[in-house]
Write a structure and sequence with these properties.
Elements lengths: L4 H27 L15 H7 L1 H35 L5 E5 L4 E5 L7 H6 L14 E3 H14 L7 H25 L16 H10 L1
Antiparallel strand pairs: 1-2, 1-3
């Protein structure tokens, strides 16, 4: 709402084009590795840097790559776990969590539709309030761990089916959002064309693109 329709759209298009060009450039460089013109070799992300620029570049890109991956993965794990907790928390079952600082199990349930005030105050987010403790291991984190740890033990070739599945789910959900927005009708009552503040726009757009 603060960024406006036009700046946000332009930012998404630019970041998308730059990301696509970077991917194609990376693929082109990997194909230039001796004996890999048909992508027959297993080349990791930092291997071209070691081959063409030496070991310092290799270690530098490895550190940057793992730090970037760590940041993205932590955010994705938290986000996914909260979604799983929200799914169960808004059902008849509810969701459970163990507060390590309080040393007790807590149960969170919210079956009624959330009001605008509840969303803004965080009352619709499982275990968001201070009364649940500061360090909580929730059902969402446990389920997320059980689902994704086996996949993490596979390499990119071994989990190809999961990558395809995730891509299909992404397209399906995106299509559903587009259809819902089209059926409800687009309204500019709560957003302007040019916005009023763009300080965090590029950072959020980049983070969304990385995810």
């Amino acid at each position: 709402q603060q960024w406006g329709v036009i700046p946000t759209t332009v930012s998404l298009i630019v970041v998308g084009l730059v990301s696509a060009l970077c991917c194609m450039h990376t693929a082109n460089v990997v194909s230039k590795v001796p004996g890999n013109s048909n992508f027959d070799k297993v080349i990791e992300f930092s291997d071209p840097y070691r081959i063409f620029w030496g070991r310092r570049a290799y270690y530098g890109t490895q550190i940057i790559f793992y730090l970037c991956t760590l940041c993205v993965n932590i955010a994705a794990i938290v986000d996914t776990s909260q979604i799983v907790d929200s799914f169960f928390g808004h059902s008849a079952m509810g969701t459970w969590g163990y507060a390590f600082d309080e040393k007790e199990w807590t149960h969170w349930i919210h079956q009624q539709p959330c009001t605008k005030d509840e969303v803004e105050s965080g009352d619709c987010l499982p275990f968001y309030a201070d009364e649940y403790g500061d360090i909580v291991l929730t059902l969402g984190y446990v389920i997320t761990t059980l689902v994704f740890v086996p996949i993490c033990l596979l390499d990119l070739k071994e989990n190809t089916a999961w990558q395809i599945f995730g891509f299909v789910v992404l397209l399906t959900i995106s299509l559903q959002f587009a259809i819902c927005f089209a059926l409800d009708g687009l309204s500019f009552d709560n957003v302007t064309f040019w916005g009023e503040s763009w300080s965090s726009m590029l950072g959020v757009t980049n983070f969304t693109s990385v995810n």
